[in-house]
């Protein structure tokens, strides 16, 4: 009703516009063919965008340049996945069924909370999910529709005792045991990226399956700086999943169907602010991923206490090995080094400083915990955590326990500058 009325009222002023469009269309027809290929490409991009961006009931322009669409939750992209054809969106489990922590978290004097930039500009109504709108420029930067939002094939989480040698470099901590989730508080930085297709990310990996086979299941979440994916150098909340070792399944965020979002407050892919600075305030965010013991879905929560909330879940239907439990958790940083200039990349990891610089200068993960079979969070003992850095002259990692900070439990510092004449040629 309302829309017919609006259309009727607008029609008279549209007439000159319609005429202009008709003239323009005629001109296009008269033009020779060269534009045809570009037009076809444009048409392909537009169709792809139509699949990704679902119609919104409200859109919010964020100061960082993003448009956040409030999409009715039952129309979200996740449900386009063939395995979710009969999926019913789950209501978030009540607080009482979330894994409980034995640690008492004190509000840290030394670190503050980072949050999502777009919250300053508005909020999405109940019943919708907040989704960062994908633009044509986002897709065009990827160079190909099929590559957009996916990881390059060789990008696998490394088997902890084998160097991968595929250009992806890590500085991580990990623990191998039967787990049902993991949690950590991660400092937020905006590392410099040298190449347009480079990235730097800080995340947790929840893994099951074999590293050498094609059945590795991985659930991933954290922050990433990726000029290719987002067109800027801000850190952004991201999710990822694969059920076949990064071959045919999986992608970032909602760029392919799969991750079911339940939050109208937290937009995956949206930028996080403020960002920590060397010698200045430290800002961090808490991520918890855990398996609903009854239904087998893997939930993600972002933040804790007051500001925190459930973001959504990876449905049990998506996975094979992870439908039971995870066998390894990894926390830490990853960059890609293509040696494009003949030297190691100068892309930074974390703050761009080595682990030894410690609090206030190096990036950290604190309060490392895993979820047990009885759905409770347990602090990971320091000696159950191993660390790995493929090239410690470029990026390194150093684990610690409390070190006088009080309440940090098992934690580690990690990162580095990448290329430098002393240790990373
Ligand atoms: C959904 O339900 C239909 C009808 O019961 C069934 O044929 C189909 O296999 C189901 N799809 C999935 C992915 O479970
Ligand atoms: C993978 O490695 C394990 C031991 O590390 C081995 O037992 C298994 O056969 C390997 N699988 C494949 C497909 O290579």
From TrEMBL:
<dbReference type="InterPro" id="IPR053168">
    <property type="entry name" value="Glutamic_endopeptidase"/>
</dbReference>
<feature type="signal peptide">
    <location>
        <begin position="1"/>
        <end position="38"/>
    </location>
</feature>
<dbReference type="Pfam" id="PF14365">
    <property type="entry name" value="Neprosin_AP"/>
</dbReference>
<dbReference type="InterPro" id="IPR004314">
    <property type="entry name" value="Neprosin"/>
</dbReference>
<protein>
    <recommendedName>
        <fullName>Neprosin PEP catalytic domain-containing protein</fullName>
    </recommendedName>
</protein>
<dbReference type="InterPro" id="IPR025521">
    <property type="entry name" value="Neprosin_propep"/>
</dbReference>
<keyword id="KW-0732">Signal</keyword>
<dbReference type="Pfam" id="PF03080">
    <property type="entry name" value="Neprosin"/>
</dbReference>
<feature type="domain" description="Neprosin PEP catalytic">
    <location>
        <begin position="162"/>
        <end position="425"/>
    </location>
</feature>
């Amino acid at each position: 009703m309302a829309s017919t009325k609006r259309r009727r009222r607008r029609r008279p002023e549209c007439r000159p516009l319609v005429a202009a469009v008709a003239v323009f269309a005629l001109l296009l027809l008269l033009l020779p063919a060269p534009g045809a290929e570009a037009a076809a490409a444009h048409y392909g991009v537009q169709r792809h965008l139509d699949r990704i961006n679902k119609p919104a009931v409200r859109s919010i322009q964020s100061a960082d340049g993003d448009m956040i669409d409030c999409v009715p939750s039952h129309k979200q992209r996740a449900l386009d996945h063939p395995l979710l054809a009969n999926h019913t969106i789950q209501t978030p489990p009540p607080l009482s069924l979330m894994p409980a922590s034995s640690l008492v978290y004190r509000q840290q004097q030394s670190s503050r909370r980072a949050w999502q930039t777009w919250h300053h500009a508005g909020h999405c109504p109940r019943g919708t999910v907040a989704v960062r709108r994908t633009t044509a420029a986002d897709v065009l930067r990827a160079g190909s529709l099929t590559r957009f939002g996916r990881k390059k094939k060789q990008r696998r989480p490394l088997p902890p005792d084998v160097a991968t040698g595929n250009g992806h470099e890590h500085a991580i901590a990990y623990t191998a045991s039967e787990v049902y989730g993991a949690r950590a508080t991660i400092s937020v930085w905006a590392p410099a990226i040298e190449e347009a297709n480079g990235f730097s990310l800080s995340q947790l990996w929840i893994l099951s399956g074999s590293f050498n086979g094609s059945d590795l299941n991985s659930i991933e979440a954290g922050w990433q700086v990726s000029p290719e994916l987002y067109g800027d150098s801000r850190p952004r909340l991201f999710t990822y999943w694969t059920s076949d070792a990064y071959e045919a399944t999986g992608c970032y965020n909602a760029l392919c169907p799969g991750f079911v979002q339940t939050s109208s407050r937290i937009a995956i892919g949206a930028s996080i602010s403020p960002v920590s600075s060397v010698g200045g305030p430290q800002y961090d965010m808490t991520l918890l991923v855990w398996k609903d013991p009854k239904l087998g879905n893997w939930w993600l929560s972002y933040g804790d206490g007051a500001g925190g909330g459930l973001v959504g879940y990876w449905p049990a239907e998506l996975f094979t090995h992870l439908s039971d439990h995870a066998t390894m958790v990894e926390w830490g940083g990853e960059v890609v080094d293509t040696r494009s200039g003949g030297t190691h990349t100068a892309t930074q990891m974390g703050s761009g400083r080595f682990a030894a610089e410690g609090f206030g200068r190096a990036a950290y993960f604190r309060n490392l915990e895993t979820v047990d079979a009885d759905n409770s969070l347990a602090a990971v003992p320091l000696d159950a955590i191993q660390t790995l850095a493929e090239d410690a002259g470029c990026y390194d990692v150093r684990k610690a326990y409390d070190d006088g900070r009080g309440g940090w439990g098992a934690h580690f510092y990690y990162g580095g500058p990448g290329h430098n004449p002393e240790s990373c040629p």
